[in-house]
Amino acid sequence: MNQQRIVIVGAGIVGLSAAYALLKQGITQVTVLEQETVDHVRGTSHGLSRLLRFEYGADLLYSEMVRLSLHRWQALEHLAQRTLYTQTGILVLGRENDSYTKASYHILRELGLTTQRLSQHYCQEHFPQFNTQPYDMLTYNAEAGLLHASTCLRALKGLILKLGGKIYEAQRVERILHAQQHQPIRLVCKSGNEITADRVIVAAGPWVHHLLGELQLPVRLTRQYILYFTDLPLSSFQLHVFPAFMAEDLYGFPIYSTCAGSGPSWLKAASHAFGAPVDPDEVAAVDNYIIEQTLQKLIELIPAIRDAKLAQIESCMYDVSPDEDFILDHHPDDPRIIFGTGLTGHGFKFGPLLGELLSSIVLNTQPAVPLERFRLARFAATRSIHTTSVA
Fold it and tell me: In what order do the strands lie in the sheet with 185-189?
């Protein structure tokens, strides 16, 4: 297997992590093709920060996967000699009957994590920035934090090159030709280059339909927005004073110098609610109605935002599966092609683990976690329904 040529399409967090996982296992011919550049601004992995939280309701598997992923991030941090993860703690504001907050609390306690249930009085004393009155289930987990997303991508790129892998930028793959299974797979690039491979991993994010359109994957693409606020007092909103937070569909981060955009005092917040369908190659105008809705909910949660300045709005994309689980599998007609999609806005934190899982499919080795839940076949009965909404 070491002599097989493995080509990975997409240099986001999943593609780079898969390349690193293969190289680390001694696979020597690993090539990554990226349509633009590593960490380009349209990529779903680009950005200043991503939330690493353990809370997944009653879903034990994902909480366990977060723990496995954090260990891998810490190992990468040591190897790269760069800060990839910063612990912030996370405050979850929920309700007793929301089926998420209490369930998360009990799962995390079962896993031995240091999550606490907080009283209203404690919250008002220690986190007065939040309006806690609408919530009756408040938890705090000190082990959560943020990943420095763009730094993570650059660190992985450096490690891949150091291990002898190849990364070719400005190589947009337009077609994957694999009809003759006794012949190598051919990847035809927009540049005119044609690359052959024995195995291909497609980790193309929102561009997955361009390459695997024949599969009619049940993945819809949505437009999301991230808001950055300035003119908030550091004394109340900086790291170790203000935690990362989740409240219904809202989430956000403390002000922190290396993840605060183009200024040292920006607070980042967003809604995880899935947005409108999007074409990944279109430059869409900002939907001011969605921004205003999100802004009003944030002001209700964090009243000081009313007097803050909305300094920047960033657009990003989600690739959303119907059940919000990942899809990690072989091409049903050609097992030489493997793909990872349906990250649904929560995949970045699992990057190194997802890379390992895809490499285990390529190499036919034992995965770190069972893969049955992530197989494409789970949608066999409903695929024709969901593909009608694919952008």
Answer: 173-177, 185-189, 194-197
Domain with CATH 3.30.9.10 in the chain: 88-144+220-320
Q: Using an 8 Å Cβ cutoff, are 313 and 226 in contact?
A: yes
Q: Rounded to whole angstroms, what are the CA distances from 157 to 47, 166, 390?
A: 15, 9, 31
As a whole number of angstroms, the distance between CA 208 and CA 235 comes to 44
Instruction: Report the sign of the C-alpha dihedral through residues 173, 318, 352, 371, in that order.
Output: negative
Query: What token pair was written down for 191?
Result: 């540049």
> Under DSSP, is residue 158 helix (H, G, I), strand (E, B) or coil?
helix
- Torsion (CA) 201, 318, 373, 212 in degrees, nearest 10: -40
Question: Rg (Cα) of the chain, in Å, rounded?
Answer: 21
Q: Residue ranges of the chain with pLDDT lower than 50?
A: 1-2, 259-263, 384-391
Q: β-strands 250-253, 334-341: how paired?
A: unpaired
186 phi, psi to nearest 5 deg: -115, 130
Q: What's the pLDDT tens digit per position in 184-211?
A: 999 999 999 999 999 999 999 999 999 9
User: Quick check: pTM over 0.85?
Assistant: yes
Residue span(s) of the chain under CATH 3.50.50.60 come to: 6-45+150-217+323-379
CATH 3.50.50.60 fits 6-45+150-217+323-379, yes or no: yes
3-state secondary structure of 309: strand
Query: Alpha-carbon distance 336 to 150, whole Å?
Result: 30
- Sole residue written with tokens 């992995």: 45
Give the closest residue to 208 by CA, choosing from 359, 353, 316, 342.
342
CA atoms of 282 and 168, how far apart (whole Å): 24
Pick the CATH number of 88-144+220-320 from 3.30.420.40, 3.60.40.10, 3.30.9.10, 3.40.309.10: 3.30.9.10
Q: Give dist(CA 55, CA 58) in Å, integer.
A: 9
- Whether 339 contacts 212, CB under 8 Å: yes
33: nearest Cα among 237, 284, 207, 162? 207
